[in-house]
Design brief:
Layout (H helix, E strand, L loop, with lengths): L14 H10 L15 E5 L3 H13 L3 E5 L2 H10 L4 E5 L1 E2 L2 E2 H11 L5 E5 L4 H9 L4 E4 L4 H20 L11 E2 L2 E2 L3 H14 L5 E4 L6 H10 L8 E5 L5 H9 E2 L11 E2 L1 H4 L4 E5 L6 H13 L1 E3 L6 E3 L3 E6 L3 H7 L4 H7 L2 E4 L10 H12 L8 E2 L1 H9 L5 H15 L4 E2 L6 H4 L6 H11 L5 H15 L4 H8 L3 H11 L7 H9 L2 H4 L6
Parallel strand pairs: 1-2, 1-3, 3-6, 6-7, 10-17, 10-18, 11-14, 14-17, 19-20
Antiparallel strand pairs: 4-5, 8-9, 12-13, 15-16
Length: 514
């Protein structure tokens, strides 16, 4: 058995994945659980001893290795062959690995490039990351650590390729900055359209971070008032005097610090809309003043007896349940009824988890410079995000993705880039391991093992044959032939689709491994 077919004795053998890998190749080769094929790695280092150690160690662990001595030779090799990862020394005789990173990134911005050096320092690590290196390790190193590092980056890229989220949300799933396609968000979109046609006051409720200001702006943007101002004020933390001054204006000398006459936001928003957030935090005295303005359509600046007519649509918001506050006596019922002519309760993110991938794509595109492609989320990262309950709702998701993008490399976001409380929810480990143990518990034949593992992978990926083909490193035609061969039930018109897509190719690529 050649070196590429040997696995280090400490590595775990996964017979299910190995069985399926054998369908695509007449030679069965041993592998580790996370690698359904032999990854190709390019090594660039001018030290013969380092190259020999890496060649031997990686080959023994299932990698196909090409090693070169210089950056120029590495570029020539990368130009003529496709590699799954590059492992390069930073300092070599003909130049640095940093320059190699630049050239490799220009050709393929998502290929994992790991740099290594005996002169490890914070400065060098920062330079490596700034130039686009995926990771950085110092010499000397344990070969087991290098193997684990390469496996993690290669598998993460393959998962991103096979199951990436849309790079740009569909236009029909966004509405004036709001993103979603869940039934709950579709209802919100409909209510926005209805509210925009009306001149009535609107009350928005929902947990913090659900997008109340975005909804208020959308109502304004789609209303006849869209060409006039849209102004916002957060009512929490302001005294009655300051809040009334901010909204209604004041005369010079009306209170300490009022050194000149000043118009309030009601006057500044003339003809437009005024968004009042956190209304539940206001005092009964201010609530009475606001009610008077809503009823009369007039404001009086603080310290003035003269009323001024205003034409402003008020959109109120609260993250506290106002009906409960009304019942408790801390919020005026007449103001509540005046504001809630049209009311809208925004759903928390945990009740529309199907929108998380779409929101992620929206935010990642938004974070990028114009013309730049956004990074992708690995399947593991998507699973962790979907499992989190997001008490901070969309705002928490946005901040988590901003952090993840800052920590990502190679155009891909893995679960490790997410905040710890989210990354810990990744869907991996014990559950899958237990399923695979049960799969071989009765010592099935190789043919039956192939059938079971393919069915498991199809169900795990929702019968998406293109995704399954990427996960198993098989082409889609092979997946279709296997489905027809085993007569799986679960996807409509499988045999018809196989016949249509395969044609005469099915005779050219036999699936028998015996």
């Amino acid at each position: 058995m050649g070196s590429a077919q040997i696995v280090h004795w400490r590595s775990k053998f996964n017979p299910a994945r190995a069985a399926l890998a054998g369908l695509a190749s007449p030679v069965m080769w041993s592998e580790t659980p996370s690698m359904p094929y032999q990854p190709k790695v390019l090594i660039a280092d001018d030290e013969p001893s380092i190259r020999l150690m890496l060649e031997t160690g990686l080959s023994l662990n299932g990698f196909r290795v090409t090693s070169v001595r210089t950056g120029r030779e590495a570029l020539e090799a990368a130009a003529s062959h496709q590699y799954d990862a590059v492992l390069s020394d930073i300092y070599m005789a003909d130049g640095g690995g940093l320059e190699l990173v630049d050239s490799l990134r220009a050709a393929d911005r998502r290929i994992p490039v790991v740099l290594m050096t005996a002169k490890a320092s914070v400065k060098v690590a920062v330079q490596a990351v700034e130039r686009g290196a995926t990771d950085f390790i110092g010499k000397p190193f344990e070969i087991a650590g290098v193997v684990a590092l390469l496996r993690r980056h290669i598998e993460a890229r393959r998962e991103a390729d096979a199951t990436s989220i849309p790079e740009k949300p569909e236009e029909e799933f966004s509405f004036s900055g709001l993103v979603g396609r869940s039934p709950a968000m579709v209802r919100v979109f409909k209510l926005i359209a209805q509210a925009a046609r009306s001149e009535a006051a609107v009350l928005l409720t929902g947990e913090s971070g659900t997008g109340k200001e975005l909804v208020a702006r959308a109502i304004h943007d789609f209303s006849p008032r869209k060409s006039r101002p849209f102004l916002t004020v957060n009512c929490s933390g302001l005294t009655d005097t300051l809040l009334e001054s901010e909204l209604f204006g004041h005369l010079r000398g009306a209170f300490t610090g009022a050194d000149r006459d000043r118009a309030g936001l009601f006057e500044a928003a003339e003809g437009g809309s005024l968004f009042l957030d956190e209304l539940a935090s206001t005092s009964p005295a201010f609530q009475a003043s606001l009610l008077r303005v809503l009823q009369s359509g007039e404001v009086r600046r603080v310290g003035s007896t003269q009323a001024r007519k205003v034409n402003v649509r008020v959109i109120g918001a609260s993250n506290a349940p106002l009906p409960k506050l009304v019942a408790e006596g801390s919020f005026r019922p007449d103001l509540y009824y005046r504001l809630s002519v049209l009311s809208m309760d925004l759903p928390p993110l945990r009740e529309r988890t199907g929108d998380i991938e779409l929101l992620a794509a929206h935010f990642l595109q938004h974070f990028c410079d114009p013309g730049d492609a956004p990074p992708r989320l690995s399947r593991e990262a998507v699973g962790a995000l979907s499992a989190h309950d997001f008490p901070g709702n969309v705002r928490e998701l946005e901040n988590a993705l901003r952090r993840a993008m800052a920590l990502s490399s190679g155009g891909m976001i893995t679960a490790d880039c997410l905040p710890p409380e989210i990354a810990s929810l990744r869907r991996d480990g014990p559950d899958v391991a237990e399923l695979e143990r049960k799969m071989i518990a009765d010592r099935p034949s190789m043919e039956e093992l192939q059938r079971r593992y393919l069915l498991f992978t199809l169900e795990e990926n929702g019968w998406n044959r293109r995704r399954v083909a990427g996960v198993l490193d098989l082409d889609r035609r092979t997946i279709q032939r296997l489905i027809a061969r085993y007569r799986f039930q679960g996807a409509p018109d499988l045999e018809e689709e196989a016949d249509t897509d395969l044609g005469q190719d099915s005779a050219e690529r036999p699936i028998d491994t015996q």
